[in-house]
User: Fold this.
Amino acid sequence: ETGVTQSPTHLIKTRGQQVTLRCSSQSGHNTVSWYQQALGQGPQFIFQYYREEENGRGNFPPRFSGLQFPNYSSELNVNALELDDSALYLCASSPDDGQGAYEQYFGPGTRLTVT
Amino acid sequence: AQSVTQLDSHVSVSEGTPVLLRCNYSSSYSPSLFWYVQHPNKGLQLLLKYTSAATLVKGINGFEAEFKKSETSFHLTKPSAHMSDAAEYFCVVSDRFGGAGNMLTFGGGTRLMVKP
Assistant:
């Protein structure tokens, strides 16, 4: 069974640029969530995708957007990058148990540095 | 919204001694609670979960946690620390939202250091 994978591992961008991060969910999982983890802090929920639709969002501006594809893989897009966007971006997948999925399984993350 | 508070930002123990990482939660209903571990430059690994079944939950690598509703606590313990346990530990609560979704709300983390 393949776990959650993310690409790229590291990325350096300039303020004002746009970035796309990618995630492949664990086999059999149809729900994908994205989290931002700033240095020294716990992860913060960005949004969640279920069956290709965004079904929940945290306190992040609209310049953070996403997609989920029919194979349940996902992208996180960030426009107009700011220095504070520098963080570890974590993708997590979970199965649909019909009751609302609970535990989530995390990928290794993408380290984004904005200069 | 539900929340969790990790009472210690750093805990230092000697190898072979017990580990106690403390977590209190705030919830208006019976919560789903988790402990995750994050090793340096690695993703998050699920240690254990509580979802209203048995109040004493056993996880991987010898860790366990006890859900105490009267104290709103979910402390993580291990009888004997190993050097490989040194990592950041997160207490997490699951918040439901519309449809089939849930978001995880993380505590601030506890860094566990294990001395030889």
Q: What stands out?
A: The radius of gyration of chain B is 14 Å. Chain B touches chain A at residues 32, 34, 36, 42-46, 49, 51, 90, 94, 96-109 (CB under 8 Å). The CA atoms of residues 54 and 67 of chain B lie 8 Å apart. The first strand of chain B starts at residue 3 and ends at 6.
